Each structure stands twice: as structure tokens, then as C-alpha cells.
Amino acid sequence: MSADTVVRPRRNTLRPVWEEQPSLLGQLGKGTILTLVVAVVVVPLWVVVVTSLSSEKTINSAGGYVFLPREFNPSAYVVIFSGGQITDAILVSTIVTLAGTALSLVVTVLAAYGLSRPGTLGHRPILFYFLLTFLIYPGMIPSYLVVTGLGLKDNLLSLILPTAISAFNLVVLRAFFMSIPGELYDSARMDGAGELRVLTRIVLPLSKAVTAVVGLFYAVGYWNAFFNAILYIDRNDLQPVQRVLQQFILAGQSPASSGAAVAIPGLGSTVPPSLAIKMAVVVVTIVPALIIYPFVQRHFTKGVIIGAVKG
């Protein structure tokens, strides 16, 4: 062997297990598991939608919930959107969700930005106060006394203010704001920008993904909330849709509009069954989340990429 010969180490030709080509049995197993997971999610939704569009005869012949559609009967949805308690409840939930999400985002962003800046007045005590809520929660009775003491009984603000800020979302936003390079803050201040301008022109444009995710968390929480309505709302015209749905399904109460005949083009006058109205309310409650999520999905993906790529 000459002196100019370079001895190269033997390369390991074995690849990691996750890089190996899956076997036929493995592919079949993955396909089967994914199919079962999709079926567990889709089948209940399918049954709810089909039942909401079924007549009394079809529901009775199926013994309750309907899996195979036999006819198209939208009378339950006509009842829901023709006015009455359910229509008012949908309007109340929409107002609470929009107003509550906007307020929660503003408060959470401002608090997270202030707590993410070193040297903020009262930084450590305020942060400790927020983190303490992870371990100690005031409980139902003190919360009820505070809300009623502020005169918020039978007021939509009682559905918004008690849950206006989440300590978990605050910590998430604060951590993201702290990961933004400090040079951006310094350059903005050298140009004469104040804190509010830095927040609106630099921090928020860089935080669209995490802000959208936190906003979705708040919106879904407000839309699905019903327990605060049980505590603080006695008027029927201020009940959110989830509270009405809870009364219909769990408490066994019948919708106020059920039992009345409605006119359907092509079907004549028909009386929507109570079960169909209940399932129609369920469909109405889950549709907003199904509509909003695809638009926020890209922010989820972008947030994962931003969090994964470093340097």
C-alpha cells in the first residue's frame, strides 16, 4: 500500500428502522388502524346528521338514531331557524363568542407582551400571580359571589369576564414573545418606536400563527361553554345554545318549538320529531368549529415549522 493511499472507514449500510420500506403486513396494519380511527370520528357525526334530517316514521322504524337515510326532511332545521328559543340561543352564543374572543385576545396579548419584557414594573409578582392559578382555583362559590356582587346576574358579561384570560394561553404567548430576537426590539426603539408600536408593527406580525391558535382556543371555549350559564343566567332569552342543548338532551326537556307543524315545499305540512330537533341543534353547534378550523389549520402548520426550525 502506497503512502498516498487514503484508508476510508467502512460505511454502515444498515438504515434506521423508520427509514426501512414498510412491509405489506405493516401497510395493511396502518391502513386498518387509520380506517378505524376515521370511522370512530365520522360515523357518530353521520348518524347525527342523518337523524336530524329524518321524519318521525323513519326514526320510529329505526328504533331511535338513523344510520341509513331514507328520505330528506329538513323540518327540524326550519323550526330552529324560524325564531324562538333556539334561534335566540344561537344569536347569544355568536355574540358571546365574538366579543369574548376579541376581549380575551387583547387582554392576553397585552399581558403576555408586558410580562415578556425584562424590567417591567412588578414583573415577577404579576407572573407569579398568574402561575398560581394553575395550582389554586377560587372555586365555584367565590366566583358566584364575585359575579353576583358585581351585578352581572342575567348579563352576558357574566359569560365573558370570568374566563376572559387563560393562564395557559398567557404562558404560551409569553414564551413565544420571548423567543423573538432582541435585536428587533432594539432596532425599533432606535427608530423611535414606542412599546405599542413595537407590539403592533413587529411582535404581532411575527406572531400570527400562535395568536391564531390561541384565538381558536378561546373561540371554541366560549362557544362550548354552558356551565357559567347555569350559574349566572336565569332568563331564557339569554341562554347560549350549549345550555339549551344541555336542557334538551340531558334534562329531558322538549324544545319549545317542537310539536308545531311546519310547511316544507314538496313535503307539505309536517311535524318535526323531537329527536330530530335535538340532533339538528347538535349539528348547528359543531358546524362553526368545522368551518373555522380549515382556515386556522395553516397557522397550526406554520407554528410547528417556526417552532421546529432553529438557527
TrEMBL record:
It is a multi-pass membrane protein. Belongs to the binding-protein-dependent transport system permease family. The keyword Cell membrane applies. PROSITE patterns: ABC_TM1. Its main location: membrane. The lineage of its organism: Bacteria, Bacillati, Actinomycetota, Actinomycetes, Micromonosporales. Residues 90-292 form the ABC transmembrane type-1 domain. InterPro entries: MetI-like (IPR000515), MetI-like_sf (IPR035906). It holds the Pfam family BPD_transp_1. This is Putative aldouronate transport system permease protein. It is found in: Cell membrane. GO terms for cellular component: plasma membrane. PANTHER family: ABC TRANSPORTER PERMEASE PROTEIN MG189-RELATED-RELATED (PTHR43744), POLYGALACTURONAN_RHAMNOGALACTURONAN TRANSPORT SYSTEM PERMEASE PROTEIN YTCP (PTHR43744:SF9). It comes from Actinoplanes philippinensis. GO terms for biological process: transmembrane transport. Keywords: Cell membrane, Membrane, Transmembrane, Transmembrane helix, Transport. The chain crosses the membrane at residues 33-53, 89-115, 127-147, 159-177, 198-220, 275-296. The keyword Transmembrane applies.
